[in-house]
Input
Amino acid sequence: MRVLMFGWEFPPHISGGLGTACYGMTRGLAYRDVEVIFVVPKSYGDEDQSSVKLVGASQVPVKKRTYVFTPENPRVEEKVNSSQSYEMTYIEVGSNLLPYLSPEEFQKYSHEHFRKNELTIKEIEQGNSAGTSVLTEVVGTLDFSGKYGPDLMQEVSNYALVSSEIAHEHSFDIIHAHDWLTYPAGIAAKRMSGKPLVVHVHATEFDRTGENYNTIVYDIEKSGMEEADLVITVSNLTRNIVINRYGINPEKVVTVYNAVEPGADNNADTLTKSVEEKVVTFLGRITYQKGPEYFMEAANKVLKHSNNVRFVMAGSGDLLRKMIRYASRLGITEKFHFTDFLKGQDVDNMFAISDVYVMPSVSEPFGISPLEAMRSNVPVIISKQSGVSEILKHAIKIDFWDVDAMADAIYGLITYESLPLMFLQYGRDEVNSLKWENAALQIKNQYMNLLYPSNTPL
Output
């Protein structure tokens, strides 16, 4: 079985948990004899391709075709003089998403055009319009930064354009798209190839922004879920959001929990702290979704009762400067440290010197970082509003907003030596049982159900 998979990042070039999850998933699928062609906006050449074939969209040439439309075509005659023909040039893509829109127009009107203007290349080439092809030529490649920058919408649109070309050039059985950034690409590939589409929901717009959601992103997510033959969510928490907030048929929404990669052999276990105090760590994007302000409020409460502790906020995000100012207002800067974004070996090193890990997420579809902490023998405190809380037994669970309970849990773990021992004794064994090859088997079974619906899963 061969899968054409669309992602936005792949280690070592990652900005969060999505790339880490995609890496583990592709390795697990390879273990289950599933071949994956993994497409990213931009490849760098230093990615681990031992279990996957990596394709960079920035290296794929796209084509343009010019069609002449005659007045007999009712879909366009109202736009032109009835005595004249109309010539239109467009980038080749089997989707109604973007061939007729500039990036600026896409950002403004995408929520309208996902369900309108259904004239597509397939309709033209199958004779459903009066168009006649007069030119086909290669126009080169599109440039991608592969970042989450100010041109993100333009890159999402360009990614969708290139995806149909990739689908045309490769042989595969199923399409798998990760998160909203790649849903338009998955839709385009489906319309070009006719292959089943799986969309994987690692987070929703409601997780990222709450009720002040971006309507354009919401519409992209909803369109991807509606077009998909199967929607995979990373937790039942997310599954309920997909069903209730996006109106998706529950029969095509399934939950497959994430896992964690085995710990790498490195020198992290031999590291020693340069401070005598206990270290309590927050590691993740410093955004609304991750609840960094609640972590800081809990830290302030703990520091009023214990001087034998330091707090670390490791990550970057739109709330970083606000959190730095907040620490200053609370007067805890001498005991509170900011590291900026960490990845790879630096993450392992951070966990190696941590005594407690806290994930106070407001809405966390899953949450891989607690598993990484437990793998490093660090007791964890997680919010009940996280998908990972559905499967973890040896973790302290609190409501994200209950800073008193969070502070009590932190104080207990850093003060009473017997309390963390229980979590250390059983936590690592628990997380080691959450293997990507097991999650991959569930995903493969779902693929098989789509391709051979009458067969019983493996």
User: Anything to note?
Assistant: The chain has three domains: 2-59+144-260+437-451, 62-138, 268-433. Residues 65-138 have pLDDT under 50 and may be disordered. The longest strand covers residues 132-140. The radius of gyration is 24 Å.
